[in-house]
From TrEMBL:
Residues covered by region (Disordered): 1-28
Protein name according to UniProt: NAD(P)-dependent dehydrogenase, short-chain alcohol dehydrogenase family
PROSITE patterns: ADH_SHORT (PS00061)
InterPro entries from the UniProt entry: NAD(P)-bd_dom_sf, Sc_DH/Rdtase_CS, SDR_fam
Superkingdom in the source lineage: Bacteria
Molecular function in Gene Ontology: oxidoreductase activity, acting on CH-OH group of donors
Basic and acidic residues composition-biased segments: 16-28
Family, as annotated: Belongs to the short-chain dehydrogenases/reductases (SDR) family.
Keywords: Oxidoreductase
CDD domains recorded: SDR_c1
Length: 285
């Protein structure tokens, strides 16, 4: 059978994107995915957990037996939909709205997670934003600071707040990107933050290894999430993902199992590593 390039219906939306307005909506979890208590009675805090990869991670974690705290900006309907998906799996879910780029919010989000869910075992730093610009001169000071605040400063803030609660066997998982390795000429500031996350992950892993806390990351390639129609023009969205070997974009359901692996005992000897889920985009690690 010929491997024909997949196309999405042309669409655009304002940031932050809304998953319930996407056409088609992303696949969050496969019906065939069977949980096996890999994360039984663990508690996970996921930034950017309302939609896309974050939502898929939350639902997969719930199917594996974890309770979940979802941190998001202002996408209330998407967050509520995610909460319902988690609860459908028989697990607890709390929603915490705020700006991950503010340290006071990070502290309060971690505090609330521990107070309401009883503990914290897994921190997933996943929140991110990107803005297409063809010329570095068009990247305003406001955009530059906003992108770095969301994508990398927030990771510092949440890790700082979480470390008082994480114990031996706990895990931290950071979402970087394939752009950290080969860049993207339309996403200069975003790619720069993703490179910073790569270094942050590897260095933090060394810093907390003595505490028996494992730090790893995931570098997704082109994945169909609300960030895509909220970042690019209709023509880019239409052909999104066609440059992969599979000639299509990936789905959140195809990324989330990597986060399950890195959060579970299956990855007990994996530390400071980055998992590449990108449809065959060869990168040098």
């Amino acid at each position: 059978m010929e491997n024909k390039p997949h196309e999405f219906p042309p669409q655009q939306m304002e940031q932050p994107g809304k998953e319930h307005k996407m056409n088609p909506e992303p696949e969050i979890i496969r019906d065939s995915y069977k949980g096996s208590d890999k994360l039984k009675d663990k508690v996970a805090l996921i930034t950017g957990g309302d939609s896309g990869i974050g939502r898929a991670v939350a639902v997969h974690y719930a199917r594996e037996g974890a309770d979940v705290a979802i941190v998001y900006l202002n996408e209330d309907k998407d967050a509520q939909d995610t909460k319902e998906m988690v609860e459908k799996e028989g697990r607890k879910c709390i929603l915490i709205a705020g700006d991950v780029g503010e340290e006071t919010f990070a502290k309060s989000a971690v505090k609330r997670t521990v107070e309401e869910l009883g503990r914290l075992d897994i921190l997933v730093n996943n929140a991110g934003e990107q803005h297409e610009q063809k010329d570095i001169r068009d990247i305003t000071d406001e955009q530059l600071k906003r992108t770095f605040a969301t994508n990398i400063f927030g990771m510092f803030y949440f890790v700082k707040a979480a470390l008082d609660h994480l114990k031996e066997g706990s895990t931290i998982i950071n979402t970087t990107s394939v752009t950290a390795y080969h860049g993207n000429k339309l996403l200069l500031d975003y790619s720069s933050t993703k490179g910073a996350i790569l270094a942050f992950t590897r260095t933090l892993a060394q810093m907390v290894a003595d505490k028996k806390i494992r730090v790893n990351g995931v570098a997704p390639g082109p994945i169909w999430t609300p960030l895509i129609p909220a970042s690019f023009d209709e023509e880019h969205v239409k052909t999104f993902g066609q440059k992969t070997l599979l000639k299509r974009a990936g789905q959140p359901s195809e990324v989330a199992p990597a986060y399950v692996y890195l959060a579970s005992e299956d990855s007990a000897f994996t530390i400071g590593e980055i998992m590449h889920i990108n449809g065959g985009e060869m990168v040098t690690t």
